[in-house]
Every structure is written in C-alpha cells, then in structure tokens.
Design brief:
globular; 238 residues; alpha/beta; Rossmann fold
Length: 238
C-alpha cells in the first residue's frame, strides 16, 4: 500500500531541499509542485510568475487529473509531493483525507524579501500564510494530526527534526536524507532555472543565517498581515 505525503509549503522556503531529502530515500519517489500549472491556469499569477507560459505548456493544467495521478500507482512504497498551499485553487480537498499532510512555514521576515526578488509586489495569496491556517482547519475537521515544520528549526538541527518527523509519520528515519549531490535533479520542475540556484549549489541543509539587511519598506504592510498567521502556526511546530 502506497504512503502518500503532501508537504504544503509557501514559496522561498526550504521545500525543495526537503524534497531532495526525501529523494535520497530508496523507498520514496518525489514530485515537484504537481499543481503549479493548475494554479497558474486558474489565477492571475500567470501574468507575473517567471516562466509561466513554459510551465503551462509542460505540465498537466487540470488539477483534478493531477489528483488522480497522486492517488494512482507509484514506483516506490512512499510518494512525496512537494506542494504550495496557495496552489489549492477551486479543488475538492477530500483527496487529503487518505494522505499524510505536512505544513512547512518560514518566518516572513526572512521569506518576503527573498520572494520579492522574483515577484516584485507579492500578495497574501502569493505567499500562502493564510492558506496554511485554512488547511489546518480542514485537517482538524477530518481529525488528522497537525504537523508543522519551521524552516529555521530544520536548519538549526535537521537530524533532530527529521528523526522526529519520520517517527510521527511512521516511516523509518534514513540518515541519507541529510545529504545529496550538488546540482539539479531529474524531478525538478521546469521552473528550477528561476528559483533553485541556491539548492543546486547545496549538498545538504545549510546553516540558518538571520538576515541583516534592512527589511524593505514596501513589504512592511504585507509583513503585518503575515506575521500573526505565522505566529499562530508555531503552536504545532515539531
């Protein structure tokens, strides 16, 4: 029986590194943001996301068909889906009932300036914090345990966090998850050239470094929206 894991993240997090970690497991196949084209097709994000036309041409645009794929047969006993929470547009969420769902968050003080380098004027919908709370409400309704990973805690002690995570989701911890070869992976989405430069240079989870540059003034209103939601997520962090 296949164990299906959704990692629901926001952008400019360590979601790709986490996907790479799971890709090191011999028992796991990984999928990179399978709902991305569905999101672009059903929102205005295709107007400002880099490479949007290329993504739409490369991937399945119909989210219902993507969910059918996720529910289908996979090459390994564990199927890991790196997802963006804000990609859940106009979809029936009941597919999550039969899957393990993890939430990955990052302090918006660190995340927003990084994201704004690619998307100049991000909105709350783009960054996914409010969507994380909606997802938690849904998971509570279906009586699933809430598991939240915080990027800073992962970077400070990846072995500790992943050991605890694997225990929670009832799979054995594999030390191979902590390191990988530098460079791209075949599972990378076609958008990797826009977003994955740093992770392609990595061979494991890097050290946490607090940002020292002044926080951009133009992002402060969005930060004020995001920070309370991020703070609420902390009660579920591993």
């Amino acid at each position: 029986m296949t164990k299906r894991i959704n990692l629901w993240s926001g952008p400019r997090n360590i979601s790709t590194a986490t996907m790479y970690a799971f890709a090191q497991r011999a028992d796991t196949c990984v999928y990179d943001e399978p709902l991305y084209a569905h999101y672009l097709r059903n929102t205005s994000a295709d107007e400002y996301h880099p490479g949007a036309e290329e993504i739409l041409a490369d991937m399945e645009n119909d989210g219902k068909k993507v969910i059918e794929m996720m529910r289908g047969t996979h090459d390994q006993p564990i199927a890991f889906f790196k997802q963006m929470t804000h990609h859940l547009v106009d979809l029936d969420w009941s597919f999550m009932d039969e899957m393990t769902n993890l939430i990955l968050t990052r302090d918006p003080v660190d995340m927003l300036p990084s994201y704004a380098q690619q998307v100049a004027t991000p909105t709350m919908m783009d960054v996914g914090y409010a969507a994380h709370l909606e997802l938690i409400e849904y998971l509570q309704k279906i009586d699933q345990e809430i598991i939240v990973l915080d990027a800073r805690k992962v970077l400070e002690n990846p072995q500790k966090v992943f050991t605890k995570l694997c225990e929670k989701i009832e799979i054995p911890f594999d030390p191979a998850m902590l390191n990988w070869s530098a460079g791209p992976r075949p599972e990378d989405g076609i958008w990797a050239k826009y977003w994955y430069k740093n992770v392609h240079q990595s061979t494991g989870f890097g050290e946490y470094r607090k940002k020292t540059d002044p926080f951009p003034e133009k992002l402060k209103p969005l930060l004020e929206e995001c920070q309370p939601t991020y703070n609420q997520l902390q009660k579920w962090v591993l």
